[in-house]
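Page 37, continued from 36.
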């Protein structure tokens, strides 16, 4: 089974890029299913119901989130019925901590976990939370989107759960790393990168971000208006004893 998993989708214009190019990508790479991290779609923070529905209609079968899961208040009204998985160690009484997705006769359990290093939200331990979920999960494959800043925390999670899950895929930094590997049949990458405007600082307008750093004040940020886009992610080949991971990175322009 071949899954294309996109890193954090930043800004609603990325939906237009996907509208124009996802079909050709699926054909070229013989993709069976598409998953994505969708925590930054609407204005760079959160996911509105309108954008959720648009991504669904483009064929994004499952969406994981991160620290911006509840940034758009309306998600509370639709998350329970959506194919969205929220961070399992975020002590919320809304949304799913395991999302089951079917493909032919196979079931995939998708889990989302938030890292605790440099994260300023009260969170349960991601390691102990994963121990608990593993006792409950019944599926053919398990994929974890580990949303965090620290490389060390992501790699620790990967080695700790290698052989127990099929993939640990990092998100949140928006910068794709080149360290994809398979260990104990578990696919790993520290960060899948983002899908968003290229001339940007992790998706946002670069001048606004520079101003924020130089002034020391809390300057507002906006998603970059650059028309060149990158789509970053990974392709997972899940096959019982021979899982594979291939880094995915393509560039497109909003006008063509
Ligand atoms: Fe993000
Ligand atoms: Fe994030």
């Amino acid at each position: 089974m071949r899954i294309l998993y996109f890193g954090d989708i930043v800004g609603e214009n990325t939906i237009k890029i996907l509208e124009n190019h996802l079909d050709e990508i699926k054909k070229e790479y013989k993709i069976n299913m598409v998953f994505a991290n969708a925590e930054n779609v609407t204005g760079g923070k959160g996911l509105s119901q309108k954008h959720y529905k648009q991504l669904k209609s483009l064929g994004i079968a499952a969406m994981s989130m991160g620290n911006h899961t509840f940034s758009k208040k309306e998600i509370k009204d639709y998350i329970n019925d959506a194919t969205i998985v929220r961070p399992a160690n975020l002590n919320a009484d809304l949304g799913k901590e395991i999302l089951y997705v079917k493909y032919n006769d196979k079931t995939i359990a998708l889990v989302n976990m938030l890292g605790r290093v440099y994260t300023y939200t009260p969170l349960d331990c991601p390691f102990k939370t994963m121990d608990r979920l593993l006792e409950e999960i019944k599926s053919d494959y398990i994929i974890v989107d580990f949303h965090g800043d620290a490389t060390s925390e992501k790699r620790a999670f990967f080695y700790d759960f290698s052989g127990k899950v099929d993939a640990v895929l990092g998100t949140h930094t928006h910068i794709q790393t080149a360290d994809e590997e398979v260990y104990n049949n578990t696919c790993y990458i520290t960060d899948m990168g983002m899908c968003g405007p290229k001339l940007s600082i992790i998706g946002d307008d670069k001048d606004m971000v520079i101003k924020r750093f130089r002034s020391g004040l809390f300057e507002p940020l906006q998603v970059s208006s650059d028309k060149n886009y990158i789509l970053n992610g990974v392709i997972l080949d899940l096959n019982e004893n021979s899982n594979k991971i291939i880094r995915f990175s393509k560039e497109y322009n909003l006008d063509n």
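The longest strand covers residues 228-237. Flag for discussion at group meeting. The pocket of fe (ii) ion (ligand 1) is lined by residues 8, 39-40, 66, 172, 174 (CB under 6 Å).
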